Structures are given as C-alpha cells and as structure tokens.
Predict the 3D structure of the following.
Amino acid sequence: MGVEELGKENLPRRGPLIIASNHRSAWDPPVLGFAAYPREVHFIAKRELFNPILGPIIRAYNAHPIKRSAGARGSLLTALELLERDFAIIIFPEGTRNRTSEPLLPLRRGVQWLAYRPEVRERVKVVPTWIEGKPGDFLVVFGEPLSPLDVEEEAFLGLLRERMLEARKRALSEAKNKRR
C-alpha cells in the first residue's frame, strides 16, 4: 500500500489524541493507522464487521465493536474510555462515508463532545486530517493540533472544519505537484 504522509510532526507521541479525518472509503482506517505509525491508533467499527473472517483481522488493527442500536452514545463512550487511557483514536466527524461531490459533509458533534469532556479536556489534542488518493497511492495530511483549552466550545466544529479543508488544499496541491 503506497501511503505518503505530510505533517506527521503534528501527531503527539503520547497522551489522548483524536485524529479527525474525512471519510471516503473503507481504506481510510488502515491508511490512517499506517500513516500515523509509530503512534498506535484505535478506531470504532460497527459490530456487523466483526464476522468470523473479517473480525480477527480488524481486531488486530485495534478496532473496537459497537452495536448500531446503541447509536452514537455507545461509540462515544467507547472512544472516551480509550482517550482516558491515553490512546489515539480515529474519528470521522462526518459520521459516515461521504459519497457526495462535496469535499466534506457537515461535521457531527461527537468529536466536540469527546474533546470537551472533563475527563480528557485538559490533555487531549485533535488533529485535523485529510486523506486523498486511491489504493496504492494515498496521501495523508496531518494538520496542526487543536486543543479544547484554546478554542471556545461553540467555535470548535467550525474551526475543525476549516482546518480539515486546509489540509485538503495542501493534499490537492501536493498531488498536483507530483503530476508535473
């Protein structure tokens, strides 16, 4: 798998971390895990993926199952538990894969809820991230980390969206330069 990363220095080596990325394909979790190496990352996946064939594989890549019937609350509580243990987690703030022509769907409040939880608020960093490309040729851009201590809660989602789109611009510019 060809994965190039930019801004890897923006990933804190330790402490609770949310990698907040766009989401276009099923490739996104393993690509982000590979790009973030050596930082170990965890992600939440729908329970239906944990079948006898795929289940052992995605568990090996730190996937944590959630019941869809438990809704967002179940996945958020699992994610919070991981952050409290100083893990890095991958969050797709769009809430689902984006299959539209828009670069980014509206961001859901789950990432904000996690970042501002009293249990992690003073230590967590949120890294706006963008994935561009296709299998064999992915580019991952890690933006400058956001701290909930530096951003008013009401402004957080807007700033995160802005920073994710800045990472997109950098990714598209880099891709364009590679084609020359």
